[in-house]
Amino acid sequence: MEVSGSGTEAQTFALPVDSEHKATEFRLFSVAVPHMQTFHLSWISFFACFVSSFAIPPLVPVIRDNLNLTDTDIGNAGIASVSGAVFARLAMGTACDLFGPRLAAASLILLTAPVVYFTSCANSAVSFLLVRFFTGFSLATFVSCQYWMSTMFSASIVGVANGVAAGWGNLGGGATQLIMPLVFDLIHHIGATTFTAWRIAFFIPALFQTSTALAIFLFGQDMPDGNFHRLQKSGDKQKDKVSKVLYNGITNYRAWILALAYGYSFGVELTIDNIIAGYFYDKFNLNLHTAGIIAATFGLSNFFSRPSGGLISDLIAKRFGMRGRLWSLWVVQTLAGVLCIILGRMGSLSASIAVMIIFSIFCQGACGLTFGIVPFVSRRSLGLVSGMTGGGGNFGAVLTQLIFFRGSTYSTQTGISLMGIMIICCTLPLCLIYFPQWGGMLSGPTTRGITTEEEYYSSEWNAKEKEQDFHLASMKFADNSRRERGTRVASASSPSDASPPTHV
């Protein structure tokens, strides 16, 4: 499809696009440049980082014997594995806004890859904790993943794009539960001793992670029209100020509420990834391989559960707009909390597996529903808001593991049920999110003050910036997000002084 670019040359895209050159169709099995190629680079790189970050838990029974680790050592390391990414995700969001997702993602992946190699050198509780801490930084690639999808795909399908990319990336948390025990067994059978085999095994995720970074450098593209550096040099994209990006993101209360909610969907997912293999291994006296297979089913359901959340968000928005997105997130995540409580009260192996699988579907579906909302919170600070929400996920994992799964204060089974109660409580504030042009869970759109999409998104730019047309990209996004009104599409109109929308 040929469209008029912002410069002097026409551009051709394989997929139909909107006025921002974002794809309006999501063709899963396509590698069309740049939209679908970016999708595949994004989820594969995030998948690799997830494999690396959670490669240790399925081998913990072997590693703890080798390094003489206590339950407290293992709990502290689990907390460390997700705590570093809290701040890394905030930094990644700002980096995406300022430098673009391509450089931000590839740089972080390359910086953390050596730590995965160094895991094979761990020889004490301290070094074990440090490698888990620094490897966890790579989970911040989630932010670049979601930012990329929001810049490549139109508002009507952004929930699906975000859900599939993140869901397939999160598959790494389940896949590594299968991969690492198999790699360990293979190396052990070849002739390596038990305590040597687990060390050699970590070269596999390290090599995988390194190769994805190189692929992003070579084939990645920041936006449909090109990379940040070239667009800024040509004048097609303005270079933003870090202070403005930070201010607009941090002062938007919606971002904080979504961060809290995400802390008890994705944060719970991270917690389960860290504890579930050991839980089944110890509680039901299973062998390492069997416990790993059962634990893997939790993460592997991301293949369809998180994408389903994104799809549900987009489908409900067609009829009920943003209010439908908010209500569906609250319902699904609350049900996840109920299932988590039930999981902690199961006494048999078969019942525990069944409830865990259903719980995983709702928990991960809530993750997809969350990022069906995030792209609409702020246009100017999209990366930072994504980073704040993603960081909230890691913070929730840290807090939950610190309270319930560190040491002997609670049994793992009791901790799981109490975690379910926290899910329900931390989902309630979603009712406070309100978009004046679209409404919220408890009330419809306002009739005073900001009443249109243009007014909402242009409010992030001051008068001087508007005079220099810095806000025009936000106006295009505002026009493309009108469908968030749901069935009231014709109930509001653009202000007369807004830039006329461009349809492709």
Automatic annotation (TrEMBL):
It is found in: Endomembrane system. GO terms for molecular function: nitrate transmembrane transporter activity. Residues 490-504 have a biased composition (Low complexity). The chain crosses the membrane at residues 43-62, 98-117, 129-149, 200-220, 286-305, 326-347, 353-377, 384-404, 416-435. Its main location: membrane. One of its GO terms (cellular component) is membrane. Pfam families: MFS_1. SUPFAM superfamilies: MFS general substrate transporter. Keywords: Membrane, Nitrate assimilation, Transmembrane, Transmembrane helix. It is a multi-pass membrane protein. GO terms for biological process: nitrate assimilation. Residues 476-504 are annotated as: Disordered. InterPro entries: MFS, MFS_trans_sf, NO3_transporter. Signal peptide: none annotated. It comes from the Eukaryota. Belongs to the major facilitator superfamily. Nitrate/nitrite porter (TC 2.A.1.8) family. This is Uncharacterized protein.
